[in-house]
Write a structure and sequence with these properties.
By secondary structure, the chain is an alpha+beta fold. It is built from eight helices and seven strands, in the order ββαααααββββαβαα. β3 (about 110) and β4 form a beta hairpin.
């Protein structure tokens, strides 16, 4: 229990565990990611977590017989720090479930001066691939211009940007898997240029 404005509430970690009997594993991972999300000072909006992964592990350990605790243990293995939204978590889970390498969260792309300039939603740093989830608000004309600028900047830094929409996450075989496979294992722009001369 925690006190907030004189009212007793369950802690974020306990609330997450209470949800374990009601949610699917994927939904529990989404909830867990939203509780542990944290961004450092290099991000436009630094964030502190509501609870840590350690807090979630401790609450699970204290309630071994509780309904949903087995599901909570499975979800714990998939919770990561750095996802800002449910679709970002679902994107990562779809890639993992398809057997693809897990993308890294909380990556910061820096310019020549070392200043942070792009914050991918997820990334494959070794392959220099940035994943960006474009939610409904990305249809706004101002946001669209910012997205184009971000993509251009990402590419000038030598990275490729894979843009993901809601429809890319839907169905039994989400299209995000094909997009990321193509980016990870398809011919690179340099290889295409080498073969075609264009």
């Amino acid at each position: 229990m925690v006190m907030f404005d004189g009212v007793r509430l369950t802690s974020p970690a306990r609330t997450w565990l209470d949800l374990a009997s009601l949610l699917s594993i994927d939904e529990l991972v989404v909830a867990g990611d939203s509780i542990v999300v944290e961004h450092g000072e290099d991000f436009p909006i630094p964030r502190q977590p509501l609870a840590t992964i350690g807090d979630l592990k401790r609450i699970v350990g204290r309630h071994p017989g509780m309904r949903g605790v087995r599901k909570a243990r499975l979800a714990l293995d998939l919770i990561r720090v750095g996802a800002d939204s449910a679709p970002e978590t679902m994107m990562r889970l779809a890639l993992l479930q398809a057997g693809l390498p897990e993308p890294v969260l909380n990556v910061v792309l820096r310019n020549r001066l070392g200043h942070p300039v792009v914050w991918p939603d997820a990334a494959y740093p070794d392959q220099r691939i940035a994943l960006q989830y474009d939610g409904a608000h990305h249809g706004d004309s101002d946001q669209y211009r910012r997205d184009i600028k971000r993509q251009s900047l990402t590419e000038r830094l030598g990275w490729r940007e894979v843009r993901v929409q809601k429809s890319d996450l839907e169905g039994d075989r989400p299209f995000i898997v094909e997009k990321v496979k193509a980016a990870l294992f398809g011919p690179s722009a340099a290889a295409i240029h080498e073969r075609t001369g264009s």
